[in-house]
Each structure stands twice: as C-alpha cells, then as structure tokens.
Specification:
- With 210 residues, the protein is of the alpha+beta class.
- It has 2 domains: 1-49, no CATH class; 93-198, Ribosomal Protein L22, Chain A.
- 35% of the residues lie in helices and 22% in strands.
- It is built from 6 helices and 9 strands; from the N terminus they run αααβββββαααββββ.
- It has a 3-stranded antiparallel β-sheet. A two-stranded antiparallel sheet has the order 1-2.
- Helix 2 runs antiparallel to helix 3.
C-alpha cells in the first residue's frame, strides 16, 4: 500500500537505496507524508501530489491557485519519524536519538554560540547530554525552517536554554528574532525534538503512530 502512494521519482529513489531497512523507512515516511498532505489539502489522490524542492533542497508542495501556501517539514532518526504541517508560514522540525558521545564538548564548541556554550558548560555533567540535544534540535529545526540547512551556520542561530524558549540571535537575512517561535516537542524518553515556525502564535496539535 505504501508503495502505491509514491510518485515515479520516489519509487526510483527507493529502488536506488541498497540497504533494505533504509529503503523501507524511506517508503513508509514518504507514504505517511503524502497521506497527511492529502488529508490536509482535501485531495483524493496522495500519489498525485507534486512535491517540489526549493533552491537549497527544502521540499514543499503547491496547492491551489494561491501558490505555495501549504508547508511541511520532516525529520527521522532510526525508526522514529516526525512530520510538521502548516499553512502560509515557514516551518522546520528535527528529531534526534540522544546517543552517548565521547566528544560532546568538542561538538558543542563547534556548533553552539558563545552564550549557549557557556550556559551549557555550567550544567552538571548528568544534565549536559539531554540539554545538548535540546539545543541541537532547536537549532536544526530553525535552519530547516529557513530552508538553508546547516550551511546557514548553527553558531549563528542562538536560543535560550530555559523555557519558554527565546530566539536570541539569527543571521541578518533571517528577519528579526521576534519573528520566530521555537518549541520543544513531546516525544518519548531518549529522544529530543523541536519545531520552529515564523509568524504569529499558532496552535500545535499532535498525532501519533506506533
């Protein structure tokens, strides 16, 4: 059933994936995305939805005469997938497994802004891993919302460590810090996920699969 929802290009891409589990994850993720978009846009054929890519590779869909009004973003890690849908705003989402890393401090020095790094290093060692991934997913969701990925520079996107999360710094061509809202998502233990959107306040609704 999942295979039938894919476009010819997606089927070709799936067939090019040599690792069976990776191929299966791709097919399932695309099928779920297409079905969600079909439900959201009230169209009959999920397979007929045309998914396009922006100049930096961010996918989007054009719906109706109004142009690019439906927005989405997805992220996956292992067997976990998160998809965000919205309308007439920029949106980005990221999910990560909170793995043990021997070089956590070195990675933080490379990717965190100075104030983020200082605040993170003041935490007790037992709290650093979880907060590292919270900061990481917040930043990743932001650069994905902008549509330029990590080429934007993770150090250039500064977030507060405390909640409610405040965006403290963004690159000059990304508008004002007050234009953006970042939210930690409610995900199972051992995972971290965040959502970034621009524009006014929004209502967040969850839908889960197992």
């Amino acid at each position: 059933m999942c295979w039938a929802l894919l476009s010819p290009d997606e089927r070709c891409r799936a067939e090019s994936l040599k690792v069976i589990k990776v191929r299966q994850r791709f097919v399932i993720a695309r099928a779920i995305l297409r079905q969600l978009l079909a439900d959201y846009m009230a169209v009959n054929s999920a397979a007929a939805i045309e998914l396009l890519q922006g100049p930096f590779g961010k996918p989007y869909v054009v719906h109706g005469s109004g142009g690019q009004d439906v927005v989405f973003n997805l992220s996956h890690t292992g067997d976990h997938l998160v998809i965000a849908l919205g309308c007439q705003r920029q949106i980005g989402v990221d999910i990560e497994v909170c793995r043990e890393r021997i070089n956590l401090n070195a990675l933080a020095e490379k990717c965190f802004a100075e104030t983020e790094l200082y605040s993170w290093q003041q935490l007790e060692a037992k709290d650093q891993k979880a907060m590292f991934y919270r900061i990481w997913t917040r930043k990743e969701s932001f650069v994905k919302a902008v549509g330029r990925g990590i080429s934007l520079g993770l150090k250039n996107c500064e977030m507060s460590l405390q909640e409610p999360i405040k965006v403290l710094g963004v690159p000059n061509d990304c508008g004002r810090t007050t234009d953006w809202r970042v939210t930690d998502l409610n995900v199972p233990s051992g995972l971290s996920a965040a959502l970034t959107v621009d524009g006014p306040a929004y209502k967040l609704a969850y839908r889960y699969w197992k």
